[in-house]
Amino acid sequence: MDTDSVLRPIAVIGGALAVTLLAGWLLDLLLRRADARHGETPLWGLLRRCRPPFQLVLGAGLLRGSYHQMKILQDHEEGVGRALSLVLIAGTAWLLVGIATAVVDSTYARYAARHPNDARVRRVRTQVTLIQRVVTTVVVVVAVAAMLLTFPAMRTVGASMLASAGVLGIVAGIAAQSSLSNLFAGLQIAFGDTVRIGDTVVVDKEWGTVEEITLTFLTVRTWDERRITMPVSYFTSKPYENWSRGGVQMTGTVFWHLDHSAPMDLMREELQRILMETPEWDGRTGNLAVTDTTPNTMQVRAVVTAKDSDDVWKVRCAVREHMVTWLVTHHPYALPRVTTYDAEPPPGQA
Question: Which residues face 292 on adjacent strands?
C-alpha cells in the first residue's frame, strides 16, 4: 500500500470534518449575534438548535461528493455511497423539521407576547401545533420515500405498483376510513376554533383541561391528574361542554336542604360575609334564594361567580363549608330533621 492511498482518505475525511466543524461554528456565531441584536423575536436563538443537523447534512454531502477520490473500499463503493445518501436524506429531513419548529415556536411566542387575550393565544397555539405536526409528517414521509427510492429494487417494485394503484387506493381508503376521519377532524378543530389547548371541557361526565391536540387524538387532563385520550372525531360528532368558549368567567351554584325555619335573611348576610373573605370570588354575583320545597325540607340555592372554572370550584367549596359550619354553630334548628311525634288529627276528630 503506497503513501498516497493512505494520505488521500485521511486528507479528504479530515478536510470534510474540519469544514463541517468550522461551518457549524460560524453558523452558531452568526445566529448568536443575530439573537443578541434582535431581542424582539426568539427565532435566531431557536435556530441555533439546528446546528447538529446542519453539520450532519454538510458533512454527509462533502463525503458523498468526494468519496470517489478517496479510493477506499472500492469493492463496496455502491453500498458506501448509498449509506451516505441515506444519511444525507435523513439529515436534510431533520434540518427541515428543526427550521419549521423554530419558525412555528417563534411565531407563537411573538403572538402571545403581543396579545393579552388568553383565548386567542390558546387558539393560535392549537393551530400552530397542528400545522407543525402536519409539516413534520409530510417531511418524514417524503424522506422515507426518498430513502426507499435509493434502492434499485424499490424502483422496480414502484413501477409495478403503479399499475394496481387504483385498486390499492380503494382498499387503503376503506381500511383507513377511521384514521382519515380523525385527520380531517383534527384540521377542523384547529381552524374551526371549537376546542383549544387549555380549554376546560366536560366529556362523558368528566371535567378536565385539554392538554394536547394531535391530528388523530386529543388528551384531557382531569382534576385528579388522570389523562383521558379520545379520537378528535369525538369533538366533531358528539356534544360536549366547553366552559372556555365565549370567555372564561364562570357561574356556579351551591345547594342546601334545610328546615323550613331556616333564617333566610341571616343566611344572605352570612353569604356576603363568606364571599368577601374568599379571594377567588370576582365580585360579580353572590345571591341566595329558595328554589324548591318538600314536605320536610326546602332547597336553598346560592349563585356565585369567579374568573374561571378553577376559581368557581374553590368558591363553591368555600361557601358550602362555611355556611354549614355557621348553621351548625349558630342556627342548628335550621338543619333538616325527621319529625317523630304524632300528627295532629283533623278538626272535629278526637
Answer: 299
Per DSSP, 238 falls in state S
Average pLDDT, rounded, for the chain: 77
pLDDT score at 165: 46
In a shared domain, residues 25 and 91: yes
Ranges of residues in the chain with a pLDDT under 70 are 1-9, 12, 67-77, 115-120, 122-123, 153-193, 215, 246-248, 338-350
On whether both 110 and 195 belong to a single domain, the answer is no
Pairing relationship of beta strands 250-258 and 241-242 according to DSSP bridges = unpaired
* pLDDT tens sequence across 204-220: 788 888 888 776 778 88
Q: What pLDDT is recorded for position 171?
A: 45
Query: Other CB atoms closer than 10 Å to residue 332's CB: what's the count?
Result: 10
Contact status, residue 248 vs residue 122, Cβ threshold 8 Å: no
Q: What domain range is 46 assigned to?
A: 3-114
DSSP string, 106-137: HHHHHHHHH---HHHHHHHHHHHHHHHHHHHH
| Side-chain half-sphere CA neighbours of 266 within 13 A | 9
Whole-angstrom distance, CA of residue 118 vs CA of residue 125: 10
Q: Which three cell numbers stand for residue 272?
A: 356576603
Residue 35 resides in a domain: yes
The SS3 call for residue 340 is coil
Residue 225, Cβ neighbours under 10 Å: how many? 7
- 210 and 254 housed in the same domain: no
For the four alpha carbons of 271, 272, 276 and 281, in that order, the dihedral sign comes to positive
Using alpha carbons, list the distances in angstroms from residue 271 to 318, 324, 336.
10, 11, 19
- pTM tops 0.90, yes or no: no
